[in-house]
Design brief:
Strand content: 5-15%
Radius of gyration: 25 Å
Helix content: 55-70%
Shape: globular
Oligomer: single chain
Largest sheet: 8 strands, mixed
Number of helices: 21
Number of domains: 2
Distance between the termini: 72 Å
Length: 523
């Protein structure tokens, strides 16, 4: 099925794409300027990494006194640029991701049109604009929406590259730039690279052999290898092996998400992708291969599990779903192609208006736990307002113990040194696939230090007591029920309870409960 007789003028396409962007941007931006919600755990890390790049520039990579994450680099550099333009705050950190997320529906339009047809492209782009899953991750200061943008753009240009009869040098150069950006953005991008590499060799083996004879092939290879080595990806990869984060079975988790939460999209999307595989196998094969490779990795290889790891392939299901809807409309007893296009758009809008997974009106706040309860999120502004107002931090006699050290640095500044992290000791088990064992060394003062850093740790009651004796005043913030019970029980019995929170006020999900307590001593 293909709309061979239907075409739109370039001016009409440009107007449609402009409207797509305006709606995307307004839905993703709304509420961020006026409400300014606090960061959640990983956002604090990205926000502080952006501050390092703002302060040191690219020389941060060669600075032994600071820690630079070996991925998310593109996002952190963008955050640094927006800090420079709009100041250091939550809004500035999220704004570049809002822009990138607003472009995603346009990329979906072009990719869908390349694989399917105009009617399907319009439907898929509309579903992407109003998807709750897409909107919520376009508003976070993390690299997942950047990864999705690079993934979709790479797939589109790779399909164009494959359909070219001659080697297009400009297109090849752009693809190499995308490969580079993907490499420094997120390790999940490597799954796409592996997919395209396998597909390219199978389809163009003779051309690949000719590349092996070219000096440029080896120059580019060693440049990429040097970059990967320089940003520390190999060290991070080896560390992941040492933490035993590979080989698992997460089928139960992602099956629940894709089928229970997104069953309609998964079913119609899979049906559409498989049906087009029968008729247009040549162009759809890399898409199908990528979905299989990506799912296999997060299901059976990478132990940590969380729904946002599905973001790179999520628009592909929306595209397949749109093709299924288009196919149904095309088989109606109507000869007018434009009328079929209108019906297809109306059917798509009907799903958006009535679907729980789509957004009708812009919201001030989009719940991170809309689908699954995964991410701790309360009003950290309140917590640190108490610490700032009651702690007398300027005197240097107050210690702050938190479960996430980047949160302390964000609220109290880079010059505040009295930071200690409360983590697991040697407990058995995992939290979201991550081991509950903290690697540490002990310094000359019998303090536990996180391996590879100078961060002090509280892993058991004796650690907490030692710091209470050393510092006349202090705060202990606990927002994770899986942390050591002896420390939690000691705090409950011996320390003063300053504040208790368990739900973010604007979060509409009643199950998004995250008990968090701020304790103090000497205050």
């Amino acid at each position: 099925m293909k709309l061979t007789n239907l075409n739109l003028k370039k001016s009409s396409v440009l107007i449609f794409l402009l409207v797509l962007f305006v709606f995307s941007f307004s839905y993703r931006l709304y509420g961020l300027t006026t409400h300014n919600p606090p960061f959640w755990v990983d956002e604090f890390a990205s926000a502080n990494q952006g501050k390092l790049f703002l302060k040191y520039g690219l020389s941060a990579f060669n600075n032994p006194n600071i820690y630079i994450e070996n991925y998310n680099i593109t996002t952190h550099l963008l955050i640094a640029v927006f800090y420079k333009l709009f100041g250091i705050n939550e809004f500035s950190a999220r704004l570049p991701l809002v822009f990138i997320g607003s472009i995603i529906p346009i990329i979906v339009y072009f990719l869908t049109k390349k694989i399917f047809d105009l009617q399907t492209a319009i439907s898929a782009s509309l579903l992407t604009v109003f998807s709750y899953f897409e909107i919520v991750w376009s508003r976070q200061a993390r690299s997942y929406i950047t990864l999705q943008f690079l993934t979709l753009t790479t797939l589109y240009l790779y399909l164009k590259f494959n359909s070219s009869k001659k080697l297009n040098k400009s297109l090849t150069a752009i693809l190499l730039i995308l490969f580079f950006l993907g490499i420094i953005t997120h390790p999940l991008y490597y799954i796409l690279l592996l997919t395209l590499f396998c597909h390219f060799i199978l389809r163009n083996f003779k051309l690949f052999l000719s590349f092996l004879k070219s000096l440029w092939f080896y120059i580019i290879f060693f440049v990429f290898f040097f970059i990967i080595f320089k940003i520390g990806f190999f060290r991070g990869f080896i560390n992941m092996f040492s933490y035993k984060t590979f080989l698992t079975n997460n089928l139960w988790y992602y099956h629940s998400f894709l089928w229970r939460e997104y069953g309609l999209i998964t079913f119609l999307g899979g049906l559409g992708l498989l049906s087009v595989f029968i008729t247009k196998r040549k162009i759809i094969t890399p898409i199908i291969l990528y979905i299989i490779f990506h799912l296999f990795f997060i299901l059976f290889i990478f132990k940590p599990y969380i729904s946002r790891y599905l973001l790179p392939i999520f628009p592909l299901f929306l595209m397949g779903m749109s093709y299924t809807l288009t196919y149904l409309v095309q088989n109606l007893p109507i000869r007018n192609d434009r009328l079929k296009l209108v019906i297809s758009v109306l059917l798509t809008l009907f799903i958006i208006v009535n679907g729980y997974k789509f957004v009708n009106k812009p919201k001030k706040y989009y719940s991170l736990n809309h689908d699954f309860r995964e991410i701790a999120n309360i009003d950290y502004h309140q917590v640190y307002a108490v610490i700032k107002n009651r702690g007398e931090l300027q005197k240097g006699q107050t210690l702050v113990i938190d479960t996430w050290w980047d949160r302390v640095r964000w609220y109290l500044g880079d010059n505040f040194e009295n930071i200690v992290a409360f983590r697991w000791y040697k407990e058995e088990g995992y939290v979201n696939g991550l081991s509950k064992k903290t690697p540490f060394i002990t310094n000359g003062r019998e303090e536990k230090i996180l391996s590879g850093t100078n961060l002090r740790l509280v892993l058991e009651v004796s650690d907490l007591v030692r710091y209470m004796n050393k510092y006349p005043k202090g705060f202990l913030f606990i927002d994770d029920s899986s942390l050591p019970e002896d420390v939690k029980n000691y705090a409950e019995k011996r320390l003063k309870k300053e504040l208790y929170l368990d739900h973010y006020p604007l979060d509409e999900n009643p199950y998004s409960i995250w008990p968090a307590t701020l304790y103090s001593w000497g205050v």
